[in-house]
Amino acid sequence: MALDHLLTEARRARLADDYGGAIKLCRAFLDVNPGAPEAESLLGLCEIETGRTEGASRIIKAAEAAPKSAALQLNLSILRERQGDIRGAVVHANSAARLDPRSFEAWAQLGKLLGKGEKLDEAFAALEQALKLRRDHSGVLMLYAVAALETNRLAECAATLDEAEALGLPKSETRRARAHLLRKRGDAPALEAFAEGWLIETPNEAEARIALAYALAEQGYYDRAAAAFAPLAGRRGASADDLAAMGRYKLGARRLEEAAHWFRRALTADPKNAEAAFGLARRSMFLGRMDEAQAWCRRTLEAVPDHADAFGLLTEATGGAISDADLAALDSALQKAVRRPEIAAKLHFARGDALHARKRADDAFAAWSEANALKRARARSAGASYDRHAQSAKVDALIRLFPREQPASFASAGTPSPIFIVGMPRSGTTLLESAICAHPGVDGAGEVPAMPFFLDGFLDGPAARNDGFDALNPAEIEQWRSGYLDQCRRFGWKGARFLTDKQPSNFLGVGFIARLFPAARFLHIRRDPVETGFSIFRRNFAQAWPFTTDLADIAHYYAEHERISAHWRATHPDRVAFVQYEDLIRSFEPEMRRLIAFCGLDWSDDCLRFHEQSRSVMTFSAAQVREPPSLARLSSTGPYRAHLDPLIRALEDFGVDPETGALRTRH
Asked: CA 198, CA 189: separation in Å to the nearest integer?
C-alpha cells in the first residue's frame, strides 16, 4: 500500500510540474521494487521532460516488459510525441485508450495528437470520449472547442468555450478561438465589436488587430481594415505575410498601386511568399492583364503547389484552358485537401471550369456539384444555410413598407445622382455598369457594400415595425446618406454628378434607396433564369450568398428577386428602367441609348467602346467585360440541359418563366 502511495504521489508531483519531487518518489519506489515497469516508465517520463535523454530507454523497456499496460502505452505515446513522431504517438495513445477505455488521459492525448495530424473528426470524437469521463479539465475543454471549431460544429464550440471559462480558463486563452468562431459564422459586425474590445484590453495583441482588420474588410471597409492593420505592416522587420496582408486590404480598397507596393515589399522580404504573388495575380486580373495574371498564378503555385485560390484564378484567366499538367497538379492538390472541405470546394470549382473547357460536360457538372455540396455542408454546420422562408418574409415586409412611390425625403445640398444597377448575380450587371461607366460624365463605384447593411438596419429597427420610413428622423437619414457617399468615395467616386453602384443585393432596397436619394435611377437587368442559375452554380460565391449552392434554392431566390423587382417596376415607373439581357446583347446600341437617356445623360459613343477602357473590374466578369458584347454568350447551357432539369422544374414551381425570368403567377 505504501509503495502504491509513492507512485500516486509521484504522478501528482509530475502533473504539478514538480519533476524533482516526482523523480525522488519514483526512485524511492524502485529502491524497494527494482525494475518495476510502471515506476521505470514514470521516472523515464520525468527525465525526458527535464532534458535527460536516458529517460527514453526507460520508457521503451518498461513498455516492452508490460505491453498490456495502458499507462505505459500512454507514456510511450508522450515520448514519441516529444520525438516528433506523431504517427507513432497516435498508435500508442490509441493502444492506451483501447487497453483502458476509462482512461481520461489516454483519450485526451489521442484527441490532441489526432488534431495535430489534422484528423479533425477523429480528434473531436476522442476528445468527446475524454470529456465523458471527466469534464472539469479546462485544457481538454479548450482542445475540444478547437476541434469543434475546425469541424464546423460551431454551436458546440461556443458552448464549450463558455464552459472552459466558467472553470477558470482565462479569456486570454479563449479569445483567438472566439474570434475564429465569429469568422466562421460570417458575423463580421460581431467580430468587429469583439476585436475592438480585445484591443482595448490588450492594445499590443497582434491577433486582435488581425481579427479587426479581417472583420472590417468583410464588411467592405477596406480602408479602415488597412488602417487597423497598419501597425503590424509598418513595424520594423514586418513579416512578408503581414506585408502581403496589407496589400490585400489595399487591393480591396481599389488602391491598386498601393497594393502592388505592399505585395512587392513582401516578395522582397520573401521571394517565395505565395500570398504576395497571388495578390499581384488578382491585381493583374482586375486590370484585364490576363497573361500577367497567369504568370503570377504560376509563381504562386511554384511556392505553394496546392494553392486553391491560385488554381481558381488561373482557370478564370485562361477561360478554363489550363494544360494537362496543370489539371494533374490540381487533381493532386484535391487529394491532399480531402479533409479540408473549404479548400476542396475551391479546387472542385476550378476543376469544373477546366473540364468545361475540354467539353467534358458530365464531368464538369459533377465537379461543380461536389464543390457546392461541400459548401452546403459547411453552411449547414455553421447554421448559415439559405432560409427560403426568411427570404420570402423579407420581400413581403418590403412590399408592405413601400407599397407605392413616396416623395423623397429632404435632400442634402450637392446630392449626386446615383445610378443603381440591380439584378441577380451573373445577370449582366457588370457588362451594363462597364458600358455606363465608359461615359465621361460617370464615375464607377463598383459593388458598394454599404446599402444592404443600411437596409437591414432599417428593417431590424423600430421604424420598420411601426410607421415605416416616415418614422425616421432626418439625422438618421442624413447619416445613411453621408455614410453611403463616404464609401462610394473609397470605392472610386471622384465627385462626378453621376456615379454607378452595381451591388446586386440593392434590388431589395429600391424603395428604401429611392427615399434616400431623390435623383437616383435604377437599371434593372434580367437574364434568362436557366442561364443565370447555371452561371451562379458554377461560381464560388462568398458565404454571404448561401442560396448559390443549390439549384432549387437558386430558383427560389430568383423568384423572390423577380417578385420584388416587379413590385418596384410597378410602384416606381419613373425611377426604374428595365432591360432584358438578351435584348441588350442583340441590340446593344439602341438599348444603351435608351438607358443613358433615362439616367439623364447625353449620349456618348464611349459607351459602345467600354471594353477598351482601362478601369479595374473586381468581379467574376473581369475577363468577359474586356470584350465587346457577343451573341455567343447568350447560351452556355446546351450540353448541361439534362443536369439543369431540377433548376427548370423549381423555376416553374415558383412561378417563373424559365425562358425570360418573368413571373407567371404570384406565389
From this structure: 14
